[in-house]
Design a protein that fits this description.
Elements lengths: L1 H6 L11 H9 L3 H26 L6 E7 L5 H14 L2 E6 L3 H9 L5 E6 L2 E6 L5 H18 L3 E5 L12 H23 L5 H26 L7 H26 L4 H12 L14 H7 L3 H14 L7 H19 L8 H5 L1
Length: 351
């Protein structure tokens, strides 16, 4: 009896799993992506806080374009300009204009952030709050102190003030931020809850939620809250263009990277794009590399186009729209060309 029992394979002692087998089982379980996500989310939280803090905690001017009217070779003019550059630890990039009207036109074209007019022994220092609230604040605080130090009378004015409902110039940044984030969150939700959409249908629904979402943003800010008086149709379409572009950027990465598409989308649009957009801190006060990069990313292009539409409507530029169009076309093209790799579609759902 004992011999038969010992030889029965059903009663043989169980062999413990090897390390390789345990690892294989772990990688095939939902625990691996969950563990990876824990570390990714922790890193993303730190990077998110760090990117905004680095760019906004201590904005420092590097090069500030300014118009100048009147003689700049006098002793008091040289003393004032030198004192400003020393106090700012930056260079005032002076552009001479023959008249006040010509200098004001340069402000309207967003070519300069201030106008220095030298008359007699004093200087009229006109900032343009709408051109960059943070730059205007720095200049308006620095100029009187420099004037007292070099004994040059200074009169401060604002030739392009912000709207009363947006005294710090942040409202345009916030509505653009909302369009960027809701844009790719909408694409994420389509991929989860409307997985069976075919490529053309996915693009069409991205257009629809972009138009409706942008209308909601503009109507709440303007009609309901009255925080900004928008050129409604233009602002609405800029926001819709931003939302569509942001949604298609995620869709492109979802096509190329599958479930990890949120990583490059978040990095490009939020960690890098929003702090460098010039919306919260004007580009002259950002680290120089980020100030240049921001113009070429969708958040910066959106802020740029919206800012010009609201405050400089007669001087709208093609560049921000070209940036948004470039990202939208590339993202949509990549998605369409490799649409067979996208995890959605009715054929994939059937599987």
């Amino acid at each position: 009896m004992d011999a038969d029992h010992d030889s029965d394979p059903d009663h043989a002692p169980r062999r413990g799993r090897t390390a390789a087998e345990r690892w294989s089982a772990f990688t095939a379980s939902p625990f691996l992506p969950a563990v990876v996500l824990v570390f990714i989310l922790a890193a993303a939280a730190g990077l998110f806080a760090g990117s905004y803090t680095y760019n906004m905690a201590n904005p420092t001017p590097h090069r500030i374009p300014a118009a100048v009217v009147g003689p700049t070779g006098t002793a008091h003019a040289r003393a004032f300009v030198d004192g400003m550059e020393k106090a700012l630890n930056a260079s005032l990039e002076l552009h001479p204009y023959p008249t006040d009207t010509a200098a004001q036109h340069a402000v309207e074209q967003q070519e300069v952030f201030a106008v220095l007019t030298f008359r007699g022994a004093g200087v009229d220092f006109a900032v343009a709050g709408a051109a960059g609230a943070s730059v205007a604040q720095v200049l308006a605080e620095t100029a009187p102190a420099v004037g007292r130090a070099v004994r040059v009378p200074v009169r401060i004015s604002d030739v392009k003030p912000l709207q009363k409902g947006d005294p710090r110039g942040l409202a345009l940044f916030y509505i653009s931020l909302a369009a960027v984030i809701i844009g790719f969150v909408g694409a994420i939700q389509l991929s989860v809850h409307a997985r069976g959409l075919d490529p053309g249908e996915r693009i069409a629904f991205t257009v629809v939620y972009a138009l409706l979402g942008a209308f909601a943003i503009a109507s709440v800010v303007d009609w309901w809250l009255g925080a900004l008086h928008l050129p409604f149709v233009e602002s609405w379409l800029i926001l819709a263009f931003t939302m569509f572009t942001s949604g298609m950027v995620f869709t492109m990465f979802n096509t190329l990277m599958g479930r990890w598409a949120m990583l490059p989308t978040w990095g490009l649009m939020v960690l890098l794009g929003n702090p460098s957009s010039g919306g919260a801190v004007s580009w002259p006060l950002l680290p120089s590399a980020l100030g240049q990069i921001g113009r070429w990313l969708p958040p910066g292009a959106s802020v740029n186009a919206q800012h010009t539409a609201v405050y400089f409507g007669d001087a709208q530029h093609v560049f921000p729209f070209a940036v948004l169009a470039g990202w939208a076309l590339v993202s949509t093209g990549v998605f369409w060309f490799w649409r067979h790799r996208h995890p959605g579609g009715r054929s994939a759902e059937a599987l």
